[in-house]
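Entry 14. Structure prediction run on the chain below.
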Amino acid sequence: MDILYTCCAGLDVHKDSVYACVRRLGPGGVARELVKVFGTMTPDLLALGDWLAAEGVTHVAMESTGVYWKPVYYLLEGRFTLLLANAQQLKRVPGRKTDVQDCAWIAKLLQHGLIAPSFVPPEPQRDLRELTRQRVQLARQKATLSNRIQKVLEDANLKLGSVASDVLGKSGRAMLSALIRGETDPNALAELALGRLRKQLPRLRPALTGRVTEHHRFLLRLLLDEVEAVEGFLARLEERIGAVLGPFAAAVEALTTIPGVDRRTAEAVLAEIGLDMSRFPSEGHLASWGAMCPGNDESAGKRRSGRTPKGNPWLKRALVQAAWAASHTKGTYLAAYYRRLAARRGRKRALVALGHALLGIIYHMMRHRTLYADLGGDYFERRDRDALTRRLVNRLKRLGLKVTLEPHVA
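Output returned:
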């Protein structure tokens, strides 16, 4: 095998230790290996960088082990050419079992160019990515708290969730606060309804008739306080995201012109893929990296599975949510594309396919710095007008009707 780097290093990263192997090509083409163990405290990692530099290392490879690789990568960034190896890829290559042999094996693979580097975004994108992911976690936490509040209400035989679409809306919170204060009269509770919910007063009164004890009030107060705390964290996160969004602000505004893509979705997508599309040779490579494409499992000429592979779950979540919103728009190409696929492949597959199309649109918008131009809801009809005409005429003929076509004069 060809040797790409005369002096490189492989790191096997753990929580409390880093095994480093420097592999250098000596006289006569014989490779020499030097192994040393370092701690993971900041002074130890700085000493690791100094040792690698003193040995003349130019390229360093490490395995993406949980979150333990991050401080090592960030402290060595800028001093060496770093390659972050996918753990799943390294497992496919017959490796070694002990820690010393693991770092030596990584160094050997690196020297022969057998490690494909993973995408590690620059620092501004890393910051935005952590913030948007934390926002998703807090939103999930709020949804969990909402479900727990509904369970307490069900335990008290209050069917508020059967009438109100959002228990934590303005009307729902006013009723919950009244319940916590000790109000049990269903008529008084129903009168707290606002807006369109007032049309449901006949249903609200029996729904708010139940058996509320001091125990239920305590749990509702506790959960409602937790919801308000989470909402406070979300507000602080939104403020921080706005502060670090500077380099991405123009791209966010451009992406919000796509049907179904709101500001939050645009921020989440850009936090995952970034602004530089040159790292992805084509939209297909980006879709494969984000796992927004069919799986490739084929053997002996037989396709065994087309299941979507595992990839970036944060990106997939944002794209599928945007696809669901786009499928409900009126008179747009994306909605027509969804209906066209859902009729043949089902709604779930159509959503993933629409997410794939959205990712392709975003790729070209970011790569060519262009704005979104919708093709129209009748695009597929205009694309092959004659075939559509023949199909509709044949359907009418099968119903026993005689069809005469005349051009329409405006």
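DSSP finds 18 helices and seven strands in the chain.
Filed with the rest of this week's runs.
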